[in-house]
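Session log. Operator J.P. requested a structure for one protein chain; no other inputs attached. Running the standard single-chain path with token output.
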Amino acid sequence: MDAVDALLAAAKVLSARGWTPATSGNLSVRDGAGFRVSASGMDKGQLTRDDLLPVDADGRPAGARRPSAETLLHAAIYARFPAASAILHVHSRSATVLSRVVPGDRLVLEGYEIAKAFAGVETHEVPIVVPIVPNSQDIPTIVRAVEPLLAGDDRAPGYLIRGHGLYTWGRDVAEALRHLEAFDFLFTCELEHRRLRA
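Structure written below.
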């Protein structure tokens, strides 16, 4: 299975779990010097190879069809993390709600065993730091907001956009999907923990 087929299979998983409701979310994989990203306005559970549009490293499309409105966010992640080869962006309920209730520009998750699902994390004693940036309809504004927050080595392979959703990535589609599943579990646990403490 090549990277495109793997991404299409992941898209069906995301859709089935309700993480890309309606036409929300976007997905991509590296492709040569650029990447392939989901077309704008598509149901992610119905994507075909033709719906993963080629763009250059700066996110400029090669054809007439319009790629995701958030293509520049993918370009920024690939530029910042050369090892990343797949990006998943979802609007899961846990990511969207938690991003609205956490104050400040980061969420710190500590003491969760599942932290070891993230690449490079070998103990639950490592805090998982997830940047949170304000939402905007102007995508370059989001890019400028998130770039400095991704600079530290202690950052998780993902970030939240407030009231919007989660971006995560990996060395391949399988790793990005593992990161996404871990984030969703952590976010769900954190929401429940906060509810019980209230």
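Operator note: The chain is about 35% helix and 20% strand.
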